[in-house]
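Now for today's protein:

——
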Amino acid sequence: MSSINDKGAQNKKDKKAIENAHDLGWFVNLSLTGNMSEVAWSHLMVHDDYKNIVDVYEGGYYYSQGVYRSEDVSCMDTHIPYFSAISRQSIVERILTYAGEEFTLSKFYANDKQGATTSAVKANAQMLRASMPTQYSPVMRGTAPELNE
């Protein structure tokens, strides 16, 4: 098992990359803490429509320990056509910001579709995850795009 908290230059570099990405508003689907009240998706864990799907799962960013994600499966590790709820929220926030519209959680909740969380999709994703070759860490290039005001 690999932990991002192990000593080593690559682990420190990856931890810093996640922290830097958070500063830019990226990687909201990952956390370096397993504390339920400190993760970016804590509001989804108590919402009636998401509380049976969203939680704190250990393992992410190619580490089995020390990095946490919001859902058991997503396209990030199994290439299934499904984004986690916090990722969908982030996508909607970004689109609305670029469009000059206001983002609200109530608007997101009213329009979000969760159709890919069936047990069949999860079972397929778990099978795919077990058979996939080793993947390499993402490489961050540049900064957040500038918005045209």
